[in-house]
Amino acid sequence: MALRTFKVYRGNDKAGELKEYQVNVEEGMVVLDVLHRIQADQENDMAIRWNCKAGKCGSCSCEINGKPKLSCMTRMNSYGPDEVITVTPIKTFPVIKDLVTDVSWNYAQNKRIKPFQPDPKKKDERGYYMMQEDVERTQEFRKCIECFLCQNVCHVLRDHDRKDAFVGPRFMIRLASLEMHPLDIADRIPEVRKDYGSGYCNITRCCTDVCPEHIQITDNAIIPLKERVVDRYYDPIAWVARKITGDKK
Amino acid sequence: MANSSINIRQSNYLGTLRADNWWLYPAFVVFGFTSFVIYATWAAFQGDNYYFDGGLMSEHFGGYLSPMYSPLVWVKSGVHGGAPLHHAWLGEMPAWMPAFVTPAFFIVGFPLAFRFTCYYYRKAYYRAFAGAPPACAVGAVPQKEYKGETGLLIFQNLHRYALYFAILVLFILAYDAFMSFFRDGQLGVGVGSIVLLVNPILLGAYTFGCHSFRHLVGGKMDCMSCSKGRLFAWKNVTKLNMNHELWAWCSLVWVGFTDVYIRLTAMGVIHDFHTWAN
């Protein structure tokens, strides 16, 4: 057992402080364990959002020594023995209390997206049927646990506060999973460009860097969507090809 | 216990609670790009020592041609380490061309456009030079109204056109590599041939791992099983694409190294070990 120094944000969206705690840390503990120990022994009213403690619910997102992480998946032995651990709430969203933030803006974005619209012509007596290679690409996106660490680290939302213009990486994933779906016939590319703001992403890849599910958000979702926008709006050869073939998409 | 007040909403340029060496990556990029740009600019202005064939200046094919000068549109005759006239597509440099213009000027725009609009390089220079953001969870340079790539940078959407030219140049550089195994029409091999051969291999890994190329060969399809050929191509381009950053740097460094090698060889500073008689 070792005594470790923790600094944890205590406060709300308007004002707060980094409060220091000395905590006994045992082998095998993760940051969330230590926060729970502080809550149990020293600060009963400290607010922490958590649920599964297995990196699958996406509830315990926070910033540990400035890096967006899941506190349940951040092992204490990944830090130096004398390192002070600073835990703050995710910065991009309003703080309700201590480490708990209001992420409801994200759910509002989700509702804006045109839902899955399967092509009735592709339904046969077996129902809707797809080949494995057709679903492989979008299966990666289904791993998303909605921890919103990508939304938090995206500088468009975090530093420039352009929530009015860009839906953020999490919803670019959702859009990509729908747009690439072999059965879906809805066209979301005009909205991807205009309403969801694909052009606001400047590919700095922080969303991919912080994703606890290691989803290749930038390479497999955002850039392919940007390329589809290019097909539709910026590529004159593609435009001519569409005119010749009569293809609307 | 020392408590400290903090404004959780405040966003300052370079402001962060990160305690690691987050500045290493942007510093590396600044050093790498700046070094290359300084060298490439210097090399492009030299206009000499970009070609070496052992001093034969033969009418036959062969010799080492620096990738920074290839393809040769016009050449200036009588330049030390310059290519023979028959190597140039349009022959002698027109007399009306300003004296400082070298053959490198006519082709530098193509690789520059490809790399500048490249999805990987965008990450690198937006972070390192524009501070947008300098690193993840590190405060970005404040902007009155952030527009990303919807404003002035909208031209980034034409990356695929830069790709088309890059593929063309790649084939020319592969031809140069092939030619480097000949001197005065004689087949052989020199250290320079190997250097020139590695160049299009690295450039090919970079160019054919391009995100736009990945989209064009198959990524744009929703039904991947509808074309086995395109699916195969997409999967293989994806393999290259996964290491796009690595190929981008390796190919950049190798282009510079190839020019250095040929320049020093043409200047007589180093000896090119080879199998030819002369």
> Which structural class do you get from the secondary structure elements of chain A?
alpha+beta
N-to-C order of helices and strands of chain A: EEHEEEEEHEEHHHHHHHH
Shape of chain B, please?
globular
Number of helices of chain B: 8
Spatial order of the strands forming the largest sheet of chain B: 2-3
Count of discrete domains of chain A: 2
CATH topology of the largest domain in chain A: Fumarate Reductase Iron-sulfur Protein, Chain B, domain 2
**Oligomer status:** heterodimer
CATH-scheme architecture of the largest domain in chain A? Orthogonal Bundle
The percent range for helix content of chain B is 40-55%
CATH superfamily of the largest domain in chain A: Alpha-helical ferredoxin
Helix % of chain A is 25-40%
Uncertain segments of chain B are none
Which characteristics define this entry?
heterodimer; A: about 250 residues; alpha+beta; Ubiquitin-like (UB roll); Fumarate Reductase Iron-sulfur Protein, Chain B, domain 2; five-stranded mixed beta sheet; two-stranded antiparallel sheet; 9 strands; about 15% strand; elongated; B: about 280 residues; mainly alpha; two-stranded antiparallel ribbon; 8 helices; 5 strands
Characterize this entry briefly:
The complex is a heterodimer of chains A (249) and B (278). Chain A has 249 residues and is α+β, with helices and mostly antiparallel strands.
What does this structure look like?
With 249 residues, chain A is an alpha+beta fold. Chain A folds into two domains: 2-101, Ubiquitin-like (UB roll), CATH 3.10.20.30; 104-245, Alpha-helical ferredoxin (Fumarate Reductase Iron-sulfur Protein, Chain B, domain 2, Orthogonal Bundle), CATH 1.10.1060. Chain A contains ten helices and nine strands. The termini of chain A are far apart. The relative contact order of chain B is 0.16. Chains A and B meet through strand 1, strand 2, helix 3, helix 5 and helix 8 of A and strand 1, helix 3 and helix 6 of B. Strand 2 of chain A pairs antiparallel with strand 1 (4-5) of chain B.
